[in-house]
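[09:14] KT: can someone run the structure on this one? pasting the chain below
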Amino acid sequence: MFRIELKKLRAYGLVMALAVAATVALMPAQPVVAQARALPDFTDLVEQVGPSVVNIRTLERSRGTAIGQGQIDEDMQEFFRRFFGQPMPGAPRQGPRPDRPQPDRPQPERPQPDDEQSQPRGVGSGFILTADGFVMTNAHVVEGAEEVMVTLPDKREFKARIVGYDKRTDVGVIKIEATGLPAVKVGDVTRLKVGEWVMAIGSPFGLENTVTAGIVSAKQRDTGDYLPFIQTDVAINPGNSGGPLINMRGEVVGINSQIYSRSGGFMGISFAIPIDEAIRVAEQLRTSGRVSRGRIGVQIDQVSKDVAESIGLGKPQGALVRSVEGGSPADKAGVEAGDIITKFDGKAIDKASDLPRMVGNTKPGTRATVTVFRRGGSKDLAVTIAELEPEKPARPVAEKPEKPKGSPAAQSIGLSVSDLTDAQRKELKLKGGVKVEAVTAGAARAGIREGDIIVGVGNTEITSVRDFDAVVAKIDKSKAIPVLLRRGELATYLVIRPAR
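[09:31] RB: done, structure tokens below
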């Protein structure tokens, strides 16, 4: 009897197992489909925002001598500091430390010149802020540039005017002469959440219209005096500078500005300037070309937990005043060294870095209330905000010797030329040609340098300045102009393109 029942149970179990297996086999793979649908699709965002993202190229006046001749080019030193996290071999140890977030400055890509001249400086990104041609980017992209060229995704190219830039926030604004441009939509940073998907478009290493994506890693990240940055894991590399950080609604929420790197390349941590802060700076730049900030004249530090508990503050908050500048607004208001500023105009100061942001965003001349914690009690003091000194130039601008102006025909394409002497013709083994004395505008963009010898324009041989002027006067300036020149022992063609 027991054996019969056991056989029945085994048979019943086998039937049930087969039934379950069949049911599982017939069930649709719903969990897998649901997981696939949960992943974001960025294609619509790229089509929506892509036309508003531009490539920025800059030219600057070269200053240094060749590396290895006793002086090291300053921009090359800067490149090593920013992207390799260490000084260039043979250079003095200075500049940012490798464990600090570094601005994503484009790499200088230029040959070593013999004479002072305009040379390519780097490549960055930007985005169209208004339909009439205002473009937002990073300050370090355009700082020191003599000429800025903007290329749109439809391959149209414009020479841009620098409206202004603010190094303290790394925000820059430039202007191109065009209308009907596709402007970006500006998002609300307060709605941005940690863990939210975001996307970047830019020109890393000069590769235009490159799209990368990731998530928001943190908000209000302290890396500077005036800005709480947005931290992401979106891949950002040299050339992404100035490009937009975009949310899933197709709105710009930040400007990609810095990377945390020990190697010079992307290591999973990137920082973007919150768009609300950037717009506030951009409005001042568009209005006056500079940014006005407030100051009260105190040096501050963090409040430690031990100090807060020992003086009865309760928790570490506020900004500890280490010194007060004599005659400053804080001095006149009665702020003393050792005070802890806990509120500014009624707004709580959680950490010391909050104070310079609040004061800096206050219009000079405004009366505000500073709440200080002093000897166990709080006290309100009235202070009148002064203006922070404008930023000084990164390096002094030396007076440049006046360059020969040349004939009107030569000037029309950005050149000044002179006849070759008999000795020069003999040395160079040339029958004729003209020597380039000065280069600007289209000729500089084409790569023509001072000292080059022009031997042909178009399909016409050039033997003298008179020939050069006659040919250039007749040539169609709305079309590309091929120029045959000698540089040292080598001949090459360069093309002067019309300004747009």
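[09:33] KT: thanks! The first strand starts at residue 53 and ends at 61.
[09:34] RB: yep, looked fine to me
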